[in-house]
Specification:
The chain has 158 residues and is mainly alpha-helical. The chain has helices at 2-10, 17-24, 47-68, 74-94, 99-119, 128-145. The protein contains 6 helices and no strands. The longest helix has 22 residues, at 47-68.
Length: 158
């Protein structure tokens, strides 16, 4: 996982992260491959992954209400994108999952990376709020497919 996500983060200077996430760590399935449960159960996590996801969730929970109300500023979106990117870096350095769980996590990470890019305006200012929602959706997917005691889904705007 470290090598794959390190390559993914390193390539941010050259290639949009969303497309790279699909290419950098292929487990025999495309990025659009749906995430699956582990024989009907949630995938195991480790403490670094849970810590990083909790930090990302806290950032989203702070930004989402203002984004939904149309009151978030460019600096708010930029800060969220930077926070998500930093936590993904933390995951790269510290998370050690079973290879099958790792493969499933890549779909979640790819969505977060795409959302962070959108939030930071890399697809134009009108898409910034949509980036926050995309990250929130990825967090909700994480909670549905990975064991994280006490995890609560982020309510999404309608």
């Amino acid at each position: 996982m470290k090598l794959a996500l390190s390559l993914l983060l390193a390539a941010t200077l050259v290639t949009p992260l969303a497309s790279l996430a699909a290419e950098s760590h292929d487990h025999g399935a495309a990025a659009s491959h749906p995430i699956e449960l582990n024989a009907g159960k949630k995938w195991a996590t480790d403490a670094p992954l849970r810590k990083a996801m909790q930090e990302i969730k806290a950032s989203v929970d702070r930004t989402l209400p203002a984004a939904h109300a149309g009151k978030a500023k460019a600096a708010d979106f930029d800060a969220l994108g930077q926070a998500v990117t930093a936590q993904i870096g933390y995951i790269v350095e510290n998370c050690k999952l079973d290879p099958k769980a790792d493969a499933q996590l890549h779909a979640v990470i790819a969505e977060m990376v795409a959302g962070a890019d959108m939030a930071q305006g890399k697809q134009g200012d009108p898409e910034r709020a949509s980036g926050v929602v995309k990250i929130a959706q990825a967090l909700n997917t994480y909670g549905a497919y990975f064991q994280h005691p006490g995890w609560k889904a982020t309510p999404l705007p309608h």
